[in-house]
């Protein structure tokens, strides 16, 4: 589940150590800025909005590509790139897949 805050007039969504400011399209992990493409930003925002629920592939295509026909591989590539960036910054977030169904975003539990 994500927490939404209003910083000034900009809406900030927080999940674990990750924060997203939709107004400035800025993503940070522990106050360190993460560089995302426009599509990666939109994908991460969409996953956070629906977290922890499964987001079906068809919904991702419909919302990000406005229903245009795209191969499943296009989504796989963007998910893979986003996963790498989140892992690089040790965000504590993980994009999980349910084979053939879709994706969901979870906060990883830290080891005791």
From TrEMBL:
Record carries keyword DNA repair: no
Keyword DNA-binding attributed: yes
Taxonomy, superkingdom: Bacteria
SUPFAM superfamilies reported for this sequence: C-terminal effector domain of the bipartite response regulators
DNA-binding region per UniProt: 10-107
Keyword terms of this UniProt record: DNA-binding
Pfam families to which the protein is assigned, alphabetical: Trans_reg_C
Residues of the OmpR/PhoB-type domain: 10-107
Protein name: Winged helix-turn-helix domain-containing protein
